Amino acid sequence: MFRRAKALAVLVLLVLPLAACGARSEASGSVLRVARAESFDGWDPDKASTYASYQTLNGVLEPLLRMNADGKSLDPGIAREWSHNRNETAWTFMLRKDVRFSDGSALSSADVAFSQAIWRQGPNYGNMYAKIARVETPDPHTVRFVLDGPDSAFPVLMAWSSSAVFPKDFGGRDRKAYFDAPIGAGAFTVEKWSPGGRIVLHRNPFYYLPGRPYLERIVIDVVDEDADVLFQAGQEDIVEYLTALDAKKFGSRVVGLPPSQLEHLSFRTTTGPLRDQRVRAAIAHAIDYRAIQHGAFREHSTLPNGILPPDLPNWMPPSRARPAHDPAKARTLLRQAGLRAPVHLEVVYDAGNPVDELIGQVLQADLAEVGITLKLSGLETGTFLSRAYGLDADMVLWSYGPVSPDIMDPLSWLSGTSWLFSGMDTRDVLDVNFAYRATDDPAKKRRLIAGLQDAARTRLPAIGLAQFQVLHAVSARVHGFHPEPWGMYYWDTIKVGRS
Predict the structure, then answer these.
(1) Residue 231 backbone dihedrals phi, psi, to 5 degrees
(2) What structural domains and CATH numbers belong to the chain?
(3) What pLDDT sits at residue 124?
(4) pTM of the shown model
């Protein structure tokens, strides 16, 4: 699964005060108020592209397994245990017998079999399920995925939100009606929602984990300014995914996680001057990376080392050195490519993100020094995503990071985005992905990852600009907040109120 982005919304809404929901004692439930800048992509998991969407989906549409907060392991979920055959070509999941959907209907293996057919159809993430040859359901609580080859990382895939379990035949509804008002096996049900505004979730009385969720309701609002004022006034309990520019406004209540996110600049390699690898290399040498690191991310970042986020099992750095800030070399490469100043290029980014706006200004100044005029196009989220996925810009400024404890995760994002919106052939990435999953040998896995990192350094579909932390602001009245290293967390573990 793959995140990623910082898709900021255009609508500002104040969070519903606790009194407006009806104050409740902790014994009978309570309300968690969440503010975020990222908009929600909707309830179809294949269309999700932001952490905000993955976070919301997992609260309603659970997959078979759950992530452990250590960022390294998996926990039972709908499936209480799992196993594989000798060569990892078949994975068997034993379902809990007490799992129900939020309408009270029992969840069975037939629902999982139906769901995997939906996963495979997805235009964005469907290829990640291509190894599933068939699904066997020997009884209502046993599901066996028979694969067309070994897959050592298959359980990780079963913890992604794109692997959500739906009721068979969408519970008798068509696909659109279901995703407008989904029924899931997660801890919460959907009371109301809108893509760029308020989402209200209510406690699922049929949730399978005893005593959970502790909350009665979650109210989520998209707020693109003054979140710190609302937080300090006690009208917000959690403000998700803060920028480094805003973090100091929240004082000691900021929870900073390891630098897991990769800010990147991607090059369209299908048309225009960036088809030439020398031009892409010239831009890589023109950039002052430390100016970006210290100016945009402050103390919350490090210099990147490759195109893959770090701190995941089997991660390896590239063997080739990172391009150094060297304007003279950049100008030489541009001359070798036959380009004469001025060269005009455009970079697109989400206009709602002040960090990307600041980075764009640094890039504009750096490229001007080597004879490239850079147009900065800050776009509304939907327009930005459309142009990025449509390869309709010279360069794309964005970020991504993992959402699960395996390097297979970012590999999937690279292939799903044509090497980060560059349009570059993804066969290399897919070959590495499937070879990685087909072996249990850690040394071989690491060699594959190092090779891909080197390929990215040579071919330059994109370059890493900074490696930064996920930051959340969490009120003192929130208990049981256990984020994974990349920032995702489960709502069903949370209580609000006095300690």
Answers:
(1) -65, -50
(2) 1-60+186-237+475-499 (3.40.190.10), 62-172 (3.90.76.10), 258-469 (3.10.105.10)
(3) 84
(4) 0.86
